[in-house]
């Protein structure tokens, strides 16, 4: 058999590259005669650059940019054939913010000061390196500034001078905005926002109300203040663009990219197109995908659902591996997944988290006995 292994990251335990390698290793133990093609996947969030580099090659270029709170952080972008791929989380990700007492979400209030300035710096560095197309993966952000910092890094001019660089707290005092210098900086450059999020910038379905709580913007007062700050930005920039699909992605980074002439693509589609995934699916007997937790969110715009959507029309069975599976068999099959296998069910929770690579390989070894022929 010819097997395609194309998982997303297993958040908190394995990168997509590590997960693909573990599945391939375990599968070969049971079915050494099978041809296993490993193609790690991503949807625009953390791991975006590594996944594309593993498939496309190209040149990884290192840079130092401003983190969400202004501290210098290392970041890397991929330059391949005139296209630069940038992972916004490297410059403004949740992992770069101090965590609160729960150990999962940032300290309350810190996101009100967090900026996307470093993402704009990465775009500028990519253009200076010769990129004529820049694809920005959106996901895992710890910011909620509507991309104001990105705009400032690319030359946008505001009153007061620092209103764009201090997060939503600073945006509240914004009185004027000129985007033309930033647009001129990107003249002749194609800009793409890669994200599975289609929320608008403002309102009940906007960046603050939907994604703010995971960034520490929890209480109603903080949400109202942050959304009001983004409204001030939108009123001075372009209120119509704020309603576009994806404007609310990554705390409004999508909005800034749209303002600069960018277009939105689903993150999965961006990666799938770059690695030639449709042709790979058509050329195998079985498709394997997976992620850390397989739940209802996996069924909408994520890597797992994207693989299933490609496998169905190609008449190729698709199965999934996960740390935990929280969707029933009937629902899985309705979404194009023949079967799903949970690490915690096979090796237990402690082993799954303590030795994730070995555990995933063990699951793949066992499943291969059923699916390989």
From TrEMBL:
Molecular function (Gene Ontology), one example: glycerate kinase activity
Keywords: Kinase, Transferase
Lineage: Bacteria, Bacillati, Actinomycetota, Actinomycetes, Jiangellales
Biological processes, Gene Ontology terms: organic acid phosphorylation
Superkingdom as given in the UniProt entry: Bacteria
Family: Belongs to the glycerate kinase type-1 family.
InterPro entries the record matches: Glyc_kinase_flavodox-like_fold (IPR018193), Glycerate_kinase (IPR004381), Glycerate_kinase_RE-like (IPR018197), Glycerate_kinase_sf (IPR036129)
Protein name per UniProt: Glycerate kinase
SUPFAM superfamilies: Glycerate kinase I (SSF110738)
Annotated EC: 2.7.1.31
